[in-house]
């Protein structure tokens, strides 16, 4: 299944684009013209085209066909098969006007030497039909053949042509995404017109890469995308399609590599410490670090000391202990006299992070505070002052941290937790803040390695591939929702044993209203059975403060059951919780189930995860639940998820921060990602200043795919 189509709106983004416009290579101008400059596209149609493609000519050209229609079949009427698309040559015999009855359609009777065929029209414009289908003349008609009683017919044929017109008709016709009021005819005509203006762009790929794979030039590949002559050309594995996908992947990787290369090249003040604070933090920690944590921290320390700015990804499954590594890094920064900013995706997580980090660092005398959108007025000002004077060593926050007016005394390190929730531009904004801080990104995003390159291809990577000792993976079971009563009884027994229970309510597609009401109903029911003071509720519509309060009460054990919508997915941390119940588990993707399950099994206590499902289960849903029972390894789950996903789960990858590719068909082209990564790395290392042979062509490529960051870097020199 194709991913949900998302029209592009980047053009509206404002200032940056306007700047880029100034420098845009002239050769690309035709592609950046408004679509209204194309013949036949007035403002009304252009607005519709914009919905599916975008406002520029280039957007139409990058509109990937969703399928093709094969009109090469030219049977006689007798041989035309029901249900198939046929293109038939026949003589117009008669127009049959229906009696004044709206329910009987208008028909045009055609014949050839083998039989008769009716063209059927509902509510037609009769003069128009008489003009295009004059009696006694030969016409070529094309459409899906149907049977009506003993007769063959085509309802609203796709094409009616004279023989002359049919002479230059192609056998294969591409089909595009449409919207109300926009016909294929309009889109095709626009593409045809746009294609006429396509410039011959210089080649940006190495000859070797191209020749080995028989890739055509860019323009000819584009032509083949829209005007295929063989079915092979419509296969994403065809060299022309591969080339276009590779262009897009390469542009993206080139921009990433440029950012990384330039960042690394600019020197940073080495953050060197004497080890005193780190020692203290380690001594006071309630556990010994895992060897993966130690190794990752060493890698980070080396980066910090190196005098080259760090750009490192700490990749580790949920529960692997990333927060502690971040705390150690902050302690090291403090040893070197620098402040650390830690960014979380939500207020609730930012506050939780501040608490956790403060527990690790407090004993070493390092001060930790939080700043979120909730802090206003005087409180906010106080925090800002303390930041500016350097009284606060570590600040945890949300986007609010990088707004105007937030100043640091000596910002040395920026840590971003669960970064896929932030855009790349956020990352840039924040690293331009202050004194060129070192950057550490932490993520548990369970995406396959290859795909990860697409997002993090430019960063150094530390992997937390080991969970803290003594962890037992949750005992995972599947239970039919029909047995709700016994589940509720089991929960009763568990809370008598002083266990704590998460209860996640169903995800209801596109309707957070019903999701909410399901959670509220369950909350009401459980409160009635076990008493309102033992059950809490969190959902997305609550204020951050309310959510926070519920989370803290659960963490502290004031309540035993926390009913939640998927807001807990991103990580309320209550290490003592041991039971996770997920209703309608069949509606979740694997990645999400894994994230949710990761909320339990965070201590040495045995834990349980109950996946409640509503039967009958489809094949994919059953496989997903089976995988959950078989493994607790996020990376294995990610690979399996990827294999199954074609059949359904749009969640995992969408959330992983994968760019909105236009010409890349991610499933078919996944193997091109490492190749593009390697080619881009090579390109940048061999010619970081964009002065060599391919430089001009690659500059054009970056503009073509609007890789703003990359462009900004090469243009600013
Ligand atoms: P994540 O990688 O998902 O962010 P956390 O940092 O939240 O994981 O850690 C999960 C839990 O494991 C926390 O309660 C944390 O205190 C604990 N933890 C972290 N490192 C260790 C360790 N080396 N030994 C035991 N427990 C640890
Ligand atoms: Mg975490």
UniProtKB/TrEMBL annotation:
Q: Output the superkingdom of the source species.
A: Bacteria
**Domain (Helicase ATP-binding) ranges:** 303-464
Q: Which UniProt keywords apply?
A: ATP-binding, DNA damage, DNA repair, DNA-binding, Helicase, Hydrolase, Nucleotide-binding
Q: Name one GO molecular function term.
A: DNA helicase activity
CDD domains membership: DEXHc_RecG, RecG_wedge_OBF
Q: Which SUPFAM superfamilies match?
A: Nucleic acid-binding proteins, P-loop containing nucleoside triphosphate hydrolases
- The positions making up the signal sequence are none
Q: InterPro entries recorded for this chain?
A: DEAD/DEAH_box_helicase_dom, Helicase_ATP-bd, Helicase_C-like, NA-bd_OB-fold, P-loop_NTPase, RecG/Mfd, RecG_dom3_C, RecG_wedge
Q: Tell me the ranges covered by the Helicase C-terminal domain, including all copies.
A: 487-643
Instruction: Specify the protein name.
Output: Probable DNA 3'-5' helicase RecG
Write down the species.
Hyphobacterium lacteum
């Amino acid at each position: 299944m194709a991913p949900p189509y998302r029209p592009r709106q980047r053009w509206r983004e404002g200032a940056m684009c306007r700047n880029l416009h100034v420098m845009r290579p002239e050769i690309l101008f035709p592609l950046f013209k408004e679509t209204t400059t194309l013949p036949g596209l007035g403002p009304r149609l252009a607005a519709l085209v914009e919905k599916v493609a975008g406002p520029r000519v280039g957007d139409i050209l990058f509109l990937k066909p969703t399928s093709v229609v094969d009109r090469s079949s030219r049977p006689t009427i007798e041989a035309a098969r029901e249900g198939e698309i046929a293109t038939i040559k026949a003589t117009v015999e008669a127009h049959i006007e229906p009696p004044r009855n709206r329910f009987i359609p208008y028909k045009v009777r055609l014949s050839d030497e083998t039989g008769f065929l009716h063209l059927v029209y509902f509510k037609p414009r009769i003069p128009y039909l008489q003009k295009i289908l004059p009696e006694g003349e030969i016409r070529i008609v094309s459409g899906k053949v149907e049977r009506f009683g003993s007769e063959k017919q085509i309802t609203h044929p796709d094409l009616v042509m004279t023989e002359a017109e049919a002479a230059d008709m192609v056998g294969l016709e591409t089909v595009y995404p449409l919207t109300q009021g926009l016909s294929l005819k309009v889109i095709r005509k626009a593409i045809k017109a746009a294609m006429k203006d396509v410039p011959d762009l210089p080649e940006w790929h190495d000859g070797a890469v191209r020749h080995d794979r028989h890739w055509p030039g860019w323009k000819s590949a584009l032509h083949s995308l829209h005007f295929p002559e063989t079915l092979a050309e419509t296969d994403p594995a065809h060299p022309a399609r591969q080339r276009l996908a590779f262009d897009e992947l390469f542009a993206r990787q080139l921009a990433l590599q440029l950012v990384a290369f330039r960042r690394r090249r600019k020197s940073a003040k080495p953050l060197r410490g004497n080890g005193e604070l780190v020692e203290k933090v380690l001594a006071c920690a309630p556990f010994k670090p895992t060897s993966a944590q130690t190794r990752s921290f060493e890698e980070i320390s080396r980066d910090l000391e190196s005098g080259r700015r760090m750009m490192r990804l700490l990749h580790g499954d949920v529960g692997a202990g990333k927060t502690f590594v971040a705390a150690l890094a902050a302690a090291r920064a403090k040893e070197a006299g620098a402040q650390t900013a830690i960014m979380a995706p939500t207020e609730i997580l930012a506050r939780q992070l501040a608490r956790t980090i403060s527990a690790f660092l407090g004993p070493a005398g390092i001060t930790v505070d939080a700043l979120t959108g909730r802090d206003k007025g005087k409180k906010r000002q106080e925090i800002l002052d303390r930041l500016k004077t350097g009284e606060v060593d570590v600040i945890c926050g949300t986007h609010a941290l990088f707004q105007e007016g937030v100043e640091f005394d000596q910002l040395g390190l920026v840590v971003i937790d669960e970064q896929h929730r932030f855009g790349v531009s956020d990352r840039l904004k924040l690293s331009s803040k202050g004194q060129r801080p070192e950057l550490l990104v932490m993520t548990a995003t369970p995406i396959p390695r290859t795909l990860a390159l697409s997002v993090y291809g430019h960063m150094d990577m530390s992997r937390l591939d080991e969970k803290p000792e003594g962890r037992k993976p949750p005992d995972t079971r599947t239970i039919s929702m029909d047995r709700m009563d016994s589940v509720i009884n089991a929960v009763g027994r568990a809370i008598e044993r002083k266990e704590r229970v998460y209860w996640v309510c169903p995800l209801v597609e596109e309707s957070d209203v019903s999701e909410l009401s399901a959670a509220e109903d369950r909350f009401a029911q459980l409160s009635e059975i076990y008493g309102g003071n033992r059950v809490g509720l969190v959902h997305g519509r609550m204020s951050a403060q309310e959510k926070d309060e519920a989370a803290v009460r659960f963490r502290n054990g004031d309540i035993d059951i926390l009913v939640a919508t998927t807001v807990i997915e991103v990580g309320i941390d209550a290490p003592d919780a041991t039971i996770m119940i997920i209703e309608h588990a069949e509606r979740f993707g694997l990645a999400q189930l894994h994230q949710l399950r990761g909320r339990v099994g965070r201590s040495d206590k045995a834990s349980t995860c109950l996946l409640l499902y509503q039967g009958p289960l489809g094949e994919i849903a059953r496989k997903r639940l089976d995988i959950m029972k078989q493994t607790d390894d996020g990376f294995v789950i990610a690979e399996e998820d990827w294999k199954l996903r074609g059949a359904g789960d749009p969640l995992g990858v969408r959330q992983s921060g994968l760019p909105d590719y236009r010409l890349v068909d991610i499933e078919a082209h996944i193997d091109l990602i490492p190749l593009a990564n390697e080619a881009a790395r090579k390109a940048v290392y061999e010619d970081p200043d964009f002065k060599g042979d391919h430089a001009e062509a690659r500059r054009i490529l970056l503009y073509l795919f609007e890789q703003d960051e990359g462009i900004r870097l090469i243009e600013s020199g």
